[in-house]
Every structure is written in C-alpha cells, then in structure tokens.
Design goal:
The protein is an alpha+beta fold. It has 2 domains: 31 residues; 108 residues, Sandwich (Immunoglobulin-like), CATH 2.60.40. It has 2 helices and 6 strands. It has a 3-stranded antiparallel sheet, with no helix packed on it. The chain has a 3-stranded antiparallel sheet with strand order 4-3-6, with no helix packed on it.
Length: 162
C-alpha cells in the first residue's frame, strides 16, 4: 500500500532589500558612528595651549607688532569676515619656530566677547629669523555682533624657539 503524502513545497524566501544594500548600510552606519565618537572625544578633550615659559616671557620684549590694520568684508555666503593684517618683527637673537597671539575682541563696555589664540609664525608661515620681519593675516568670521568694531587686543600667547 502506497502512502499518500502531500508533496512538500519549498519556497525561497526573498528579502525585499538586496543583501549588498544591507551590508553597505551597515558599513556606512558603523563608519558614521566611529566618526561621531572620534569627533566627540576630540571636542571634549582639546589639547590645552601651553602657557608662556619664563624664557618666552623675557623674549616677548624682543617682538614687535607693527602696521596692524583691520578690515571687514562680506563673504560669498553673506557673512561678515573681519581681517587683521600686520607685521611681526624679531629684534632678538633667537630664531622663532612658532609665535601665537591672543586676539581679544571687546564690546562697547570693554567686556570680552571673543578671545581666540591664533598662530602668526608657524609651520605654514615659516620660522622667523633674528632681526627678521614677517607679514601676518588673520581672518575671523565668528565675532559676536556685540563687538565694538575696534582693533582687538593682540597679546603674545606662546613662543616656540627654533
């Protein structure tokens, strides 16, 4: 006697989204997660700028900022860009590998509205030899509207000797 068994039918289940698309989405999600984590860590723990050493504090008197001018212009994105230009002179006997200054912007009441540390001698600009002069140009597009429109205080913030 022959058994009557129903025929077993197998169906291939098809995913509505192709496997390569799923793999690509997972890779992109992991990459974005890694980038966001690294960005968060970098913003949370920025390197602290070094203070002036005793030797650098004595050498500050050998540096001279001259021909400092300020201009404001509008960028292509209709944003105000403030540009500070000038010269730095090294009247001392040492080569300078890096010089950073604080640009301190104030409001009409003399309160600080922005304080930024920027290099005026460094890797991109080259070193500053004894007796030498260099031009510098600093651009700012993040100055608060409460700024008094005056030339900011420029204070030597760091010196690295060559």
């Amino acid at each position: 006697m022959a058994e009557n068994r129903p025929a077993i039918q197998t169906k291939e289940s098809k995913l509505p989204i192709p496997v390569p698309v799923i793999v690509a989405a997972v890779v992109v999600a992991l990459a974005l997660g890694a980038w966001a984590t690294l960005d968060y860590v970098a913003r949370k723990n920025p390197p602290k700028p070094q203070a002036l050493t005793a030797e650098a504090k004595q050498y500050v008197h050998s540096l001279q900022l001259t021909n400092v001018e300020i201009k404001a212009a509008e960028s292509y994105m209709k944003q105000q860009v403030v540009e500070i230009t000038g010269n730095i002179g090294n009247n001392g006997q040492r080569e300078l590998k890096r010089v950073e200054i604080y640009c301190v912007f104030r409001d009409a009441y003399g309160q600080v509205v922005l304080r930024e540390r920027v290099p005026i001698v460094g890797d991109r600009m080259g070193s500053l030899a004894p007796g030498g002069k260099k031009n510098f140009r600093l651009a700012f597009d993040n100055i608060p509207e409460s700024w008094n429109q005056g030339i900011p205080d420029l204070v030597i913030a760091g010196i690295v000797f060559g």
